[in-house]
Amino acid sequence: MRIIAGEMRGRQLKAVEGIHTRPTSDKVKGAIFSVLGEKVINSRVLDLFAGTGNLAIEALSRGSREAVLVEKNYDAYQVIQRNLSLLGVAGKTKLHLMDAFKFIDRYPNEVFNLIFLDPPYRQELIPRVIQSIKDFAYLTPDGVIVAETAKDEDLTGVIYPFEIRKTGEYGDTKIWYLQRMDV
């Protein structure tokens, strides 16, 4: 697993040993950032279910100004700490060892341009996150939520007040790009 573009291009990331995390592949990551394009530059990023920090670190490499990473698994948290330190971006990040829903409850006034949601597949966590953040200004008016699910999962009908702006399928993975309906 590596950074695929930007100032840290080609740098390797440490991964969590075992099967408890499923890092976003370079192919899928490349597709995500191709769709996001200029939205990444100078953005404030939230990476819930951060795993290795792969998506947030890629965003920083491509010009995001700050990333907040949330991970509840201690082994994954330690790997993220190591990756942030090795790549010299710890000063642009805030890393929280906690459950994603506790983070949302504890920090209801946070605002982000990009929110990455890559939870374990088939556990209905993305609809729960949407329910948790919908009443807050968690996302800037033109911000984007990038959600990663298994290809056979469906988010339609469970994402109000957000709407699906685009989707993409890559092997067994489906990427959903959501924005507020009034944008």
UniProtKB/TrEMBL annotation:
UniProt keyword Methyltransferase, yes or no: yes
Gene3D superfamilies: Vaccinia Virus protein VP39
Keyword match Transferase: yes
Gene Ontology annotations of biological process type: rRNA methylation
Keywords per UniProt: Methyltransferase, Transferase
Listed InterPro entries: DNA_methylase_N6_adenine_CS, RNA_MeTrfase_RsmD, SAM-dependent_MTases_sf
Record Pfam families: Cons_hypoth95 (PF03602)
CDD domains, sorted: AdoMet_MTases
PANTHER family given in the database record: METHYLTRANSFERASE
UniProt-recorded name of the protein: RNA methyltransferase, RsmD family
Native source species: Desulfosporosinus meridiei (strain ATCC BAA-275 / DSM 13257 / KCTC 12902 / NCIMB 13706 / S10)
